[in-house]
Amino acid sequence: MKRLTGIMLLSFILIAGLAACGSDDSSNQAGDTPKKTTITMGFWGAAQDLKVYQDAAASISETYPNIELKIKQYPSSEQFWNILPGEIAAGVAPDFIKISNEGANEYISKDLFASLDELIPAAGIDMNRFTPASLDIWKKDGKQYGIPNISMPAMFFINEDLWKKAGLGDYPKTWDEVEAAAKKLKTDDVYGITINLDAYHITNYVKSYGGDWGGGKTINSPENVQALQKIFDMYKEGLAVTPKSLGYGWDGEVFANGKAAMTTGGYWYKGYLKDANPNLKYAAVPVPKGTVEGSTMISDAYVVLKDAKNKEAALQAAYYLTNDKTQTEFLKLGFNPAIPSLSAQYFEENPEFKAVEPALEYSTDFNYPTETKKFIDELVKQLEGSILGGTNKSPKEILDSVQQQFK
Question: Which of 327-332's residues contact partners 24+ apart within 8 Å by CB, and which partners?
């Protein structure tokens, strides 16, 4: 998934070092804000996202005349997380960034993000604008760490033309139906499904079998093993392919190029596919059921870095990006705003995602271990070792091995 390396988190040693080099915030108290402050926001995303942000930056002075907002787009999520550590260490990192909830807890626990509770009153921020669920995702130990931007369940994407060409009828509602359809969709040039060996995608399989990582306590649960077994089965049958095997960086590229007929994904596919393959016809449905209805809830938010030179101004700039005009533009690109009044319009503006609406009721947070990087690295390494590298470990052996590191 393109978001995948958005959770390629900083190593413990680096984070510990960076946390120790935080700047003195004594000059950032209310009343000390300079008359004109330059604030930088960092993100990675599609070209349409950049345009929306640039338009917002051009008008921020109408609300905050003391703020000049600059937008920094990183080429990819991988480069974002590879470049950011050095920028933080050098004191040239953005003041705030957009990040998903996939790995936020590790950053919070390593003290890289600023707690917003004391800043909110001074900055004049109205947190009541946001849905309670989106606010809760960005709380840890009772403290607020993010200004919610969007909230949306994971999805399952199907290439409509390939589906019809294979003579298939209703879209699959279970993984067994997906597996059966993949057998009919598989050709010499097209795989039935691409399964990115990435924690995001794996977690959606896990959730659909009633599983959960349990913050590190239930990694090797029977439900999680059952979910991995379904993935292994589709690979063993030659129905599934990883992006890496085809020379692609993420699942969206495989899907956009017609190399796989199905994939787990998310709302960001709309903006990406509009650029990558505007003629591609696709259907978006809820993540198929394993034994239960289950999937992840993705929430993006703006978080202020602990070392931001002017946290109050950074928070105001972040809050400004959630204004109705800007959020409406993102809504058109497939983002479901975390603002109730706009969220109500979301599925009207994005009818291609209408089928996913019921998943808002049962999708949940990722619940990774706090040492998220360690968990993700180990899980992916062992999955790739077995599926791509020939170690031949079973799903249970893999999860037992990972669980041993998180006792």
Answer: 329/52, 329/55, 330/49, 330/52, 330/149, 330/150
Q: Which of 192, 93, 193, 202 is nearest to 154 (CA)?
A: 202
pTM higher than the cut 0.85: no
Neighbour-count burial for 45-71, b at 16+ CB within 10 Å, e otherwise: bbebbeebbeebbeebeeebeebbbeb
Reading phi first (left if > 0) and then psi (alpha if -120 to 50, else beta), residue 131 is in: beta
Q: What integer pLDDT is reported at residue 32 of this predicted model?
A: 52
DSSP character at residue 238: T
Q: What is the pLDDT of residues 322-336, one digit of tens each?
A: 999 999 999 988 899
Angle subtended at Cα 102 by Cα 320 and Cα 374, rounded to the nearest 5 degrees: 135
Rounded Cα distance, 123 and 317, in Å: 10
Q: How far apart are CA 26 and CA 320, in angstroms?
A: 24
Q: Report d(CA 82, CA 75) in Å as an integer.
A: 11
d(CA 275, CA 39): 29
Say how far apart CA 310 and CA 23 lie, in whole Å. Answer: 10
**Is there a contact between 107 and 36 (Cβ–Cβ < 8 Å)?**
no
Q: Which residues contact 68 (CB under 8 A, 6 or more apart)?
A: 36, 37, 38, 39, 60, 61
Residue owning tokens 């990115």: 196
d(CA 110, CA 125): 25
Residue 402 identity = V
